[in-house]
TrEMBL record:
Residues 9-78 form the Cyclic nucleotide-binding domain. It comes from the Bacteria. It comes from Streptomyces pratens. CDD domains: CAP_ED. This is Cyclic nucleotide-binding domain-containing protein. InterPro entries: cNMP-bd_dom, cNMP-bd_dom_sf, RmlC-like_jellyroll.
Amino acid sequence: MFAPPSPSMPRALPVEHRAKLLETAREVSFPQGTRLFEEGGHADRFWVIRTGTVELDMHVPGRRAAVIERLGHNELVGWSWLYSPHVWHLGAEASTPVRAYEFDASAVRALGEDVPALGRDLAQWVGNVVTHRLHSARVRLLDLYGPYGAGSSV
């Protein structure tokens, strides 16, 4: 569990930290079409997908929201909870029925303060996810709105 979202991200949480983190989780389900969060909203929780697919999207003025990435099994949904001001930078919607582990952001941040090694590993893990998502957003937006082929050579 808690594998990185792509092979380009080799680091996941160590087993002992995964177990500690899972102690704070609760299992949740979302029907297809459920909005998990909206860009600009307060980021007070996050999820790790067990089954199903979640689409991350970005508001584009004058257009429909652009789907940036599709997330599935063992992927982290939401990273804005870790970094101030704890505001969502993207939106997220269940594109299929989803089962996930849900985590309270305040509890996990407190756990990271109580167990500094866990806090460091969380920051590294989430930082890797942020890096990947920013790259995905750039490529996707170039594919959608840039000159033909602009996102394919990135």
